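Researcher: Here's a chain I'd like modeled. Treat it as a single chain, no partners, no ligands.
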Amino acid sequence: MKILIEGAEDKLAAQLHKFRNGYSTTYAALLKVPTNLLDKLDKGSLFLDFVLDMQSKIHTVSSTFTSYKNLVLHGHGTDVLGALPVLTIYPTTPAPPPICDANVAGILREIAQVCVNSGNLTEDIAKALGLFEDPTVVSLASGTPDLSLKSMSGGHPMLHTVLNGYDGFEVWKDSGIGAGFVFHNVSTSSDFTDQSALPALGVEVVWKYKIIYRLKNLQIGNWSATISVAVKGNV
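Model: Modeled as a single isolated chain. Structure tokens:
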């Protein structure tokens, strides 16, 4: 399970709210996040909301003034230059909440690590707290499996890759008989053992493999590099 700490400012602000709204008494007993960290997070969430709101209003004023400047410089069709824009952000600037500690994202990351270290952070709890990183088709579409030969089990090649959130992978095989690569099997675990009949005793052949990830019963991502395995009959 991967833990998610949002990078985008607005998404991080929403994540802070989701965590604090979801962190119930039940989860407190399970995850044991220190009170001082939760207090820092609350303070950071409130101050971040204020700063983002101020930034949005300042951006609006800046954009309006930039448009006015462009009219001054170049005009725009038959537009008439009016009075300077009003630059007031608020009728009355509100008092900010107490200033928080710097790095509110780091505080959330520290809290997430405490939750992980508790040993009680299940996938369902992580989802309820907004900490679960749910792999998406978009993020998985560029994945390339790192295919390797893990071992030879009774003379049969055992292939290995890391699933990384995929449902499994397709195995394509070139048996060296002139047919090239053909579909061989699907694996839903990180390891796959090719149980094909081995060559005759003492005969050595080279089998080649390449794989591609699967998600929701479809191929996704890129093909792995091809690996070659020398297989020898032993019975």
